[in-house]
Amino acid sequence: MTSNKILGIDLGTTNSAFAVMEGGDPEIIVNSEGDRTTPSVVAFTDDERLVGKPAKNQAIQNPEKTIASIKRHMGEEDYTVEIEGEDYTPEEISAMILQKIKHDAEEYLGDDIEKAVITVPAYFSDRQRQATKDAGEIAGFDVERIINEPTAASMAYGLEDDADQTVLVYDLGGGTFDVSILDLGGGVYEVVATNGDNDLGGDDWDHAIIDWLAEQFEAEHGVDLREDRQALQRLKDAAEEAKIELSSRKETEINLPFITAGDDGPIHLEESMTRAKFESLTSDLIERTVEPTEQALEDAGYEKGDIDEVLLVGGSTRMPQVAEKVEELIGEEPQKNVNPDEAVALGAAIQGGVLGGEVDDVVLLDVTPLSLGIEVKGGLFERLIEKNTTIPTEESKVFTTAADNQTSVQVRVFQGERELAEKNELLGEFHLTGIPPAPAGTPQIEVGFSIDENGIVNVSAEDKGTGTSEEITIEGGAGLSDEEIDRLQEEAEEHAEEDQQRRERIEARNSAEAAIQRAETLLEENEEVDDEIRESVEAAVEDLEETIDDEDAEADDIEAATETLSKELQEIGKQVYQDAGAGAAGGAAGAGAAGAGAAGGPGAAGGAGMGGGMGGGPNPGAGGPDAGDDEYVDADFEDVEDESDDDGDDS
């Protein structure tokens, strides 16, 4: 059955969380491992694809095929990860994480989930937002809304306190930093200003520790551990653990035995790090949050004394230096009643409740983080929509040609705050043709921008003389079309079935191997077993071993052969029981037979690990996983007043 609930998803750089409205309140959903957050990690092994904690747990043994922090590359057009000769885009890797989230949510709720609200950093560009939406669709979601993470966090906070107030949300995640200022009151959440740094997050604090450890070790032993993939992965894990420990302790010990080997044998890494040392190593990182925070205040027209509450969001805000810096900047002690790991997902669930009709009297007024415009004559950036404009919104402006007899123009769309277009991010471009030849400055070309609730941009251009028009919805990431999304979704679904089959086969094999081991033990311990029974058991063992070794054998085949062996083992139990009578020995033999049946039964859990830390536990998540021959004049537009419409220039 398909649920009408809308899942709220915080798709994080290092960890993700998901929630849903239950009984009028947002509730975090635990994943299949029983945790409230899911590592945003994907790994490939010889047998299956792992997502979440299983992927993170085997990263040291399998660093080359383990992918983490893929969110930092969302929207990068040419970025791919190569695994075993196959290239994966950030959207595809993110879709694998989202598929696990979808699967775990459905298992938890007992219903199919089709709709989702997914959060993104407030400072994500249109391209990055579209890439996130694409990832959701590849994973099988209808993405109802893309909302900003700080805004979502404020909704989780505001649901508990609906008083009129101005709130600053300081969001330091694993890979991004955002700061947003909102006016809350009467169920209205109005974003006044936002700013941030998409290349600053908790991972950078980890890297500072990694570099320090590596430099200390190299100075002492002459070996750079960062050049060894496996040693580097151990450093990463140790750095993250040290960072977490130093959030609550003044000092921590970092011990990595057998980290490498020299001429005289194994070398161990042993270091102590104090919180003071950690903070001195990362002081430049915390300072990078100051300028965006001050800029957001300036853009909002507020002084720090105008801020009523400060919310800290993102696991990285647990570091004491963060709270100290924020209090120094704002003069207000941050709230401590908001869980930094869960607030964003809870807020996304609330927005899902609003869209689904479960939550009334809540209005979200978000903003676009960066200005949008086009390139005009001289390579200048002409803004049509200014940053921090409330969305959805639309604006238009009239331009003209810069050359005589110009019959076409190229519209190049940019996003950013630089005055030269090329210094901003190029979102897309298209051509408007069929303009009648005329002297420069005569044609009137109206360019219109619209931004929807998800922050997705649509741009149009119309020759007002002929009515000829063109438009484009800016594509994100690799510029995925609907057909490409459908294809990737089909591939993801195909891989999901394939991964499920692999998992079932591994579980069946684990059960089979346990049954074989039990059979060998029973035969050794009970030499008096009749030759006929012994031969039957040995034949069943041989048949099961052949079935396991048969690459074409499916899980059902292995389970059937395991069941046959299980029944033969029961015959041993019967004989031992009959020979020994119904006394204690018989009871023990019966228990042994029952144990053999349990070990060999097709429903037995696959407890035995199989290389690289992979076991037969619950499925960790499925996944994948021109413009003709016309000669165009680049967009040398000139801004003009619209003579036929006084409102033509309304930017």
Automatic annotation (TrEMBL):
It comes from the Archaea. SUPFAM superfamilies: Actin-like ATPase domain, Heat shock protein 70kD (HSP70), C-terminal subdomain, Heat shock protein 70kD (HSP70), peptide-binding domain. Residues 583-626 have a biased composition (Gly residues). The keyword Metal-binding does not apply. GO terms for molecular function: ATP binding; ATP-dependent protein folding chaperone; unfolded protein binding. Residues 627-651 have a biased composition (Acidic residues). Keywords: ATP-binding, Chaperone, Coiled coil, Nucleotide-binding. Residues 222-252, 478-568 form a coiled coil. HAMAP family: DnaK. This is Chaperone protein DnaK. It comes from Halostagnicola kamekurae.
